[in-house]
Amino acid sequence: MLDGNHRVRLGSPRVGGGDRGHRGDPRLTDSIDLPDRMDLHVTTPQPETGALLSGLRTVADGPLSAATNMPPAMYHSDAVLALEQERAFGRDWVSPGLAAEIPEVGDHLVWSIADQPVFCVRDGDGQVRTFSNVCRHRMMTLVAGDGNSRRITCPYHSWTYDLGGQLVGTNHMERTDGFDRVDICLPEIRTELWEGWIYCTLDDDAPSVASLLAPIEGFVAPYGVADYVPIHRVDEVWDGNWKFLTENFMEGYHLPITHRVTLGTWMPMDSVVFPDESHGAFTYQMFEKDENAMYGRAHPDNDRLEGAWRSTTFMPTVFPAHMYILAPDHLWYLSLRPRGTGQVELRFGIALAPEVHASLVEPEAWITEMVDFFTAVCEEDRKVVEGIHVGSRSPLATPGPLSWLEHELHHFMGYLADRLTSTD
């Protein structure tokens, strides 16, 4: 079982400061060094926001049996969003996706962290690294999408960087005093791989992903996520606050109703297991699927899982906004970013267990059918997420009581209360 209380230690994030953004030239050092983010802007809650967060703290500290969901202002307040960006997305670990989605040297994908554009790339040594996606010349976006390149070339003036972020090519800079491209590199973002996932943070002082997620490693590791084969990934924008989608993912209470034409009948309510205690970095649930489930049971060639684990789905949410369904035969995931208070950017990906992928006789048709199925599931979720967002704007909208099946929402409130009411 899970034990211990693993909470992210708040620090003073530094993004590309020191010699990670420039080397050697004092002139460049004096003019370009990036000060601590938290020295630039520390959001202090206003009285009305403070009262709102105080109420959140009270509900989060109380028992689930007496808990209600969060009030509308938690989803529609610009002040709350500013705190979330600074203290949650700006300090905790976020995931752009699977390391297997950039398997080859030069493969890259784009993402953003607290509105800071970044890209992840497989460097010449085969390591996954993350850099600021902003040119060091005139601040142009460098990488516009996913792809593969042995050099990162700015589409504006052709400044070129190697896969380690070092500036290696420029044009017409010979008349600029003291300029030496050796002194300039892209700010690098702290990146760690954990059980096949890429995690990034702007906080150089945050505890490692491995230490934060150690209590669930024993659940995740046997599935062998690092060997799962990505088959689909798409980025979308939904109309709704990011927390509505996070909460929707975390509870199975809605499955028999919202997903009654897709996977709703596969959810055995009596087999759902939640953690015995709350944890600062994550929450989860797990459940078994019977032989009626179209997806979610181990392939005969799966030699990693035994006993009940061959039909068990593990479903973690890594705060603030990385969540996935991990089943013996497949996984699918969401990674979220707020777009203001009224929209959410989501990355939706699917991967297959290696033995399932290897067994496919007609892979294109089979994969298309699976992608269509889970896309339909997401569209069912989209309707309720967008509907909740609209409904929550009503003057008559008030928080209602939570079910025991919404256990993880209570954990999520605890996480938000920890982050947003911190005085560090």
Task: Explain what this protein looks like in three dimensions.
The chain is α+β, with helices and mostly antiparallel strands. 27% of the residues lie in helices and 22% in strands. The chain is built from 12 helices and 16 strands. It has helices at residues 26-32, 37-40, 47-61, 73-76, 78-89, 209-212, 214-220, 242-250, 255-258, 354-359, 363-391, 407-420, and strands at 94-98, 107-113, 116-122, 128-132, 147-148, 152-153, 160-161, 167-169, 188-194, 197-201, 229-239, 282-288, 312-318, 322-326, 330-339, 343-352. The strands form 3 sheets. Strands 1-10-9-4-3-2-5 form a 7-stranded antiparallel β-sheet, with no helix packed on it. Strands 11-16-15-14-13-12 form a 6-stranded antiparallel β-sheet. Helix 3 crosses helix 12 (407-420). The radius of gyration is 22 Å and the shape is globular.
